[in-house]
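Re: your question from the hallway

Yes, I did run it. Sequences:
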Amino acid sequence: MFWFKKPALYVYSIIFLLLGLFASGASAGLFDSVSLTVGSSRIVNSPYAISGLFGGMSSLIIFLYPSIIGVGIYRDYKSETHSILYSYPFTKMQYLFAKFFSGVFIVHLIILVLGIGVSLGFILPGTNQDLLKAFELKPYLDIYFIYILPNIIFTGLLVFGVVTFTRNISAGFILVLILVVLQGFLVGYAEDAENRLVSALADPFGDLAIQYYTQYWTVAQQNELYIPIRGVLIYNRLIWLSAAGILFVLIYRTFSFSQNAISFAFWKKSEKRIKKTNFLGIVDIDLPNVKLNYSFITQLKLLNRLSNIDFLYIVKNMPFVSIVLFGLLINIVSLFELGNLFGTATLPRTWRMLEAGETLALSINICTFLYAGMLIHRSRIFKSNELIDTTPTKNWVLFGSKFLAIIKMQVLLLSLVMISGLIFQIYKGFYDFEINLYIYELLALSLIYYVIWAFLAFFVQTLIPNPYLGLFIMIVLLIGIPLTQLAGIEQSIFKYNQGPGYSYSDMNAYGSSINRYFVYKTYWLCLGIVFFILTILFYNRGLTSNFKERLKIAKNRFNGWHPFFLSVFTILFIAIGSYIYYTNNVENIRRSSKEQEIATVEWEKKYKKYEKYAQPRIISVNVNLDLFPKTRDFNVDGEYMLVNKSGQIIDSIFLDHSSRISTFEFDRENTLVLEDTTYHFDIYEFKNPILPGDSLKLNFTVRNKPNTLLRNNSPVLYNGTFLSNQNFPSLGYQGYELTDDKTREKYGLPPNELKPLPSDSTALGNTYISKDSDWIDFEATVSTSVDQIAIAPGYLQKEWVDGDRRYFNYKMDSKILNFYSFNSADYQVFKDSWNDVSLEIYYHSGHDYNLDRMMKGMKAALEYCSENFSPYQHKQLRIIEFPKSQGFYAQAFPNTVPFSEGLGFIADVDDSEEGGNDYPFYVTAHEVAHQWFAHQVIGADVLGATVMSESLSEYVGLKIIESVNGKNKMRKFLKKSLDDYLLSRTFETKRENALMFNDGQGYIHYQKGSLVFYALSDYLGEKNLNKAISKYVNKVAFQDPPYTTSIELLDYVKESTPDSLNYILKDMFETITLYDNNAVSAVSKKMDNGKYKIDFEFNVSKYRNDEKGKINYGDQERDSINFQSDNMDKPIYSVYLEDYLDIGVFGSDDDENETEIYLKKHKISDINNKISIIVDEEPIEIGIDPYNKLIDTDSGDNRKRIVYED
Amino acid sequence: MKLKITNLSKTYKNGVKALDKVNLEIGTGMFGLLGPNGAGKSTLMRTIATIQSPDQGKIVFNKINVLNDNISLRKILGYLPQSFGVYPNMTADSLLNYFAVLKGISSKKERSILIDRLLEITNLKDVRWKNVSGFSGGMKQRFGIAQLLINKPELIIVDEPTAGLDPAERQRFLNVLREVGSSSTVIFSTHIVDDVKELCNNMAIMNEGKILNHIKPVESTNKLKGKIWNKVIDKTSLDKMDKKYNILSTSFNPDNSLNIRIFSDQKTVSGFKKVNPDLDDVYFLTLKENS
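Structure:
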C-alpha cells in the first residue's frame, strides 16, 4: 500500500506514540523527580481521565485527515493515474469506499499507536502507582466507539469530500481549522448553563455531549464511573453520523468517473478551447532593449513585488477567504458574550476587543504553518520550479518574498481583530475609539509573536519535503512546547517563543510588563533570524536528491554575508539569553517548581516547631510609606507596638519577613540568634524576657531592590498601585505548607490536618486573617508623586505638598484588624454621603459609567446592615479603583474597598427584564457588607471561618439585590451560583467539607454559602433570620480571643429554627446534601367555576456526598428510601424525607412576563408525589422548587409546561 | 562565447551513473545533444542550467565558473526544461511579467514593451489574457520560449522541446529556435535525429552518461558515404541477418516485409543496395559501436 512506503506515516506514528507516552506518563507523575509532584486525589487512568486523555489526544489527528483521508482521490488526479484507473472495472461505490476507508485505516493505525502510547505511559517506570488502578480495556473501547470512531467518520468524510472536489489539500486544513474554531466557540457558548443542551447536540466532536453528563462529577465519581453512553451523547453521535451519511450520499452523487467532470473555479477555470494560430514561417527576434538591474535596492523592490504575488495567491485562495470570513463571524459573535459576568456584559473597551481577538490566534498560527509550507513547495507542486530556479534572483530574495507574504497575511488576519472590534463598538454605540491602541497592540505586540513562529515554520517547511508533515510538526511544537513545563523545563528561555506576556489596563496601560515582553521577543527574534539565514542556506533551488547533498550545497552557500549575519544573530541570541539567565538564576534566586516544593517542605520541617510558641501581639501600627510611581519604588518605615498578651514569659520573637531589603530594631536588648536568608525567618532572643503584659516596640524599614529591565522587585505601578500589608513583617510561623497528603508522605511529613475543627477550643486564639494580632490602632503617612492621590485606611488628617511629593496622613479612630492596604493613582473623586457617613469613589478618569450604581450599592448595604445587624463602625467609606492587571476582584479593608477596574467600573448593565445582574451594585453591596462580616465579626482560624465573612456578605448582597430586582431575576442568579458550585467542586483537589467546616474554598463559601443563606432566609423568614444574625453580631463583634466559630453562629440560627426545619440546618450546614428534584407531568383542566385544577406529578430525592464526593443516602442504611415505577430501569434512592419544598404555579401578564400565581411550601415525605392544586388564573408552568433555591444537581428539570386536558 | 565542460560526473542514489566524466566544448550557434531516453541528457542540461549539482567536474562559460557562481550564469541564461508547469490562474501576460521581474527587469514600462514583443514573436498575443495552465502543448512550449528570451540570454538550454508536439507545431517551434540560435550558444537536447539535422551545425551523441561522439552533422554523414546498405527481407530472417551484418536500423513496409540498413566497409554486399547515408545512420552507428 502507498502509505507504508511513506516516511510520513512512521513519523506520525512515532509522534503520537511519544505524545501518548508523555501525556499519560506526566499525568501519572513520571516527572515527579524534576517537576511538581502530581497530587494524589485523582486516579489518572480512570475511565473519565482516559476519555479526556485518549479522546483529547486523538483530536489532534484531525490535522492529519487532509493529507491521509482527504488525498485518496486527489492523489490519483495528481499523479494522473486517474485516466488509467477509471478505465478499470470497478463501480463508483467500490472506488469511493476503497479510497475513503484506506485513509480511515491509516488513521486507525495511528489511533492504535496512540492508544498503546497512552496505556503504556501510565506504567512507565517512575510513574506513581498510587495514582493508578488496574488496567482495563473497556474505557479505551468506550471512548473509541462513542467518540473517536464517529469523529473519524464524520470529519474524515467532510475532509474527503472537500479535498476531492476542490482538489486542494489546503481546503481540507482550513475546514479542519473551521471545525476546531467552531467547537471552541461552542465551548464558550456552553459556559452559560442555559445553552448546554444545544451545544451538546451541536458539537461535531461530541466533547460537549460527554461533558453534559460528566460536568458535575465529583472526584469520587470521576475516579469510578464509566462515561455514560446515553441520551444527549447518543443523539449527538446519531446527528453527526447521519450528517456523515448524507455527506457520503452527496459525495457519491456528485462524484463522477469522467475525469473532467469535477472542475472548480479556483483551481482550473474551464477555458474555452483556444484556436491554434499560425506562426509565421520566419520570425525576427528583435527584442527591445531593456535594462537588467540586479542592484540591492531592486532586489528589495523585487522581494516586495514577489511577496505581493505570493500574498495574492494566499488571499485569493477560497479556503483562505473562508477562514477569514468565518474568523470575522466567530469573532464578532463571541464579542457578544464578552466579559460576561453574572449575565452582564462589559463595555466594549478597546482592550476588551483586543482580548477577544485572541480567539484568532490558533487560526493565524495554523495559516502561517500551512501557507509557509505551500509557498515553499508551491513551485515544486506546480512544476514551475525549474523555470523559477534558473532566474538570477538570489535565494534571500526568493525566500524573503515568501516570508514577507506570510507576514502580510498575518497582518491581514490581525486586522480582522480591529475590524470586528470597531464594527462591534459601533454597533454598541461605543464611540470611544482607540485606533492607536489597536494598531500598537496588533502590529507592535501581537505581530512579533506570530513572526517568530513564521521563522520556525519556514525553517521546518524548508527542511521537510512534505508540507503537510511540516504543518503537523509545527502544530505539535506549538502545542507541545508549553507542555514541556510538565517535564520540568520551566524557564522560558529554553522554550521557543515563550516568555512573559503583557496585559493592558486603562489605568496603567501596559505597565512595566511590556519591557520584559520586548526583551524576550527580541531574544526569540534573534533566533528567528538565525533560522531565517539557515533557511536561506538550505533553501531548495533546483533538484536535490538527499539531505547530504543539501548539506553540501548549504556549506557552499555559506559565504559572503551569511557567516557575518549568522554569527551576529547567534551571538545576540546567546547574549540576550545569558543576560536573562544571569538575571533570573544568578543575580536572583530562581527556584523551579520542584525546588519550590522542596523548599516548602524544608521550611515546614525547620520552623513548624515554633508554631505554638507564644509571641507578643501587635497592638498598633504606624507606618510612613513613600511610593515612587515613576521608578516604581517604595520604602516604608514603620513601627509596631507589641504586647505580651499570653500568660507566658516570652524570650524570643520569630520574625517572618519578605526578601526585600529590610531592617528591624526592637527597643529591648536582644541578640539575633538566627538569620535565615533563604526563608527570611529570623529569631531574636531577648536579654530580658518579655513578661506577660509587657510591651515593646519594633521599628522596621522595608524597601524594594531596584527594578530592572527584567525584574520587577516592587508592587508599585506607574498608575494604580495597590499594596497590602503582606509586604510588612509578621510574627511567628505563618504556615504555607504542602497540602497533598501523598506528596507530604513522600517527603516524610505527617498528613496535613487542614485547619482545626471549630469545636477545638484551643485553636480559637487567632482570627483567620492574622496570626500575630487582634485589633490594632492604625496610623499611616503615605507620600506619592504630586499628580497622584494616595489612600490608606483611616481618616485623612493632613495633606501637604513638598516639592514633587504629595503627602497624606491617615489615622483610624477605632480598632481595626491588622489588615490594611495602600492605593495610589491619578484619581477623580465622586462624593456623596449617607446619614453622617461620607462616601467616596476614587476612579480613573473616564471610568464614570457605573459610579451611581456603586454609590447606590454602598448606601443600600449600609442601610441594610445597620438596620438589621449593628451600626457601621466608621464615618467614611471609600471605593478605590485599581488596574485590572492586578486582578478582577474587590477586597474590603477597613473603610476602604479597593475595586478592580475590570469588575464593575466598566460593566455594561442592562436594566431590562432580560438583562443580567447589576453587579457593580451587587459587588459593592457584598464588599460593604464585609465591613460587618469580617471587620466586626471575624471567625477564628479554624474550619468554617469564612461562613461568617464571605457567606454572610454574599447573603447581604443577595438580599439587597433582591429588593431592587425582584424575585424573578434572582432565579437566574441562583442558577448561576448553583452551576458554579457544582462545576467548581469537581476540581477539588483535597476534600470538600460541609459549609460550616469549609477550608476556605471559594466555591463553598461564596456559591454554596449564598445559596444556603438565601434558602435559609426563605425557610425561616428574612426578619427572623436577620434577628438571629443580629443577636450573634452583637455578641461577638470586635471580640477578643477566643474568636467565634461557625458552630456559634449556627447555635443562634438554631434558636430561631422550628424543630420541623432542623433538617435543613443539617442538610445545608453540617453535611453536603444535594437534591435531585424534577417535574414529571403537569395536566390542568378548567373547572366549571372558572378555576383551574392542576394535577402535578414530581419526584423529590436527595443524597449526601462524603468529602471525596461519594454518594450515600443517609447516616445509616435504613435511612434511605427508594422508588421505582414501571418504566424506570433503575430505582431512585433518597435520604429519608420530611422536607418542605416550594411548589409554584406561574402564568403570564399582558406583556408576556411571568407572574407568580401560586407559591407554597409543601411537606414531602415520598420520592414520587402526585398532588392537585387549584388556582384562580390560567396557569402556564408549574414547578417543584421553581426558583432553584435548593442545591439541585439538575436545576433545568424543575419546571414543567402545563398540558391542558379538554 | 564558449562553454567548456570538464570531467563532469554525477551518480544518483540508486547507482545510475547519469554523467560519466563528460568533457565538452561548445561554441556559438546551435548545438544538438542527441541520445536515447535515459542517456543523461537532462542531467547534463540541468547541471549546466545550475539546478543540479554534479559530484565533480567543472563548467565554465565565458569566464563564469558556473558551479560556483550560478547567479552570474543565471543572468545570461535562458532555460526551457523538458516539462514545466505554471501557477494556476495566471495569464500569459502576468506570468511573463512575473518572470521578467524575477529576471531583473525593474522598469514596469520596459517590461510591458518587452512582453508585447515577446508575445508577438511567439504568436501568443491572442491568448495574452488567458491562463497559461489552459494552454495546449505547443502554446505552452511557445510560452516557454517567450519566458526564455526575456533576459536576451547568451546561453540557451532547451531540453527536449519538441517531444509531444504535432509536426506543424514542431516545425514552427524549430523556426523560432533557429532565429534565437543565430546570436547565442544554444544547447538543444533531443532524441529525434531530424531535429538536429535541421538545426545544428554541431552536435554530440550521448549515451549512458558519456559523450560518445562530438561531430558536425554534415561532415559525419558524408563520411559514411558508400558504407550504408539497404535490403528488403522477410521478418523471419532478421535473426539470421543480425548475426551476419551490422544492422543499424530496421523498418517495416506496408506489406509486412522489413527494410534493414546495415553498415559495411566492403565494396559490395550481396543482395544489398547502396544507399545515401543520413544522420540517423551516424547516430545508430555511434550507439552501436559504444554499446
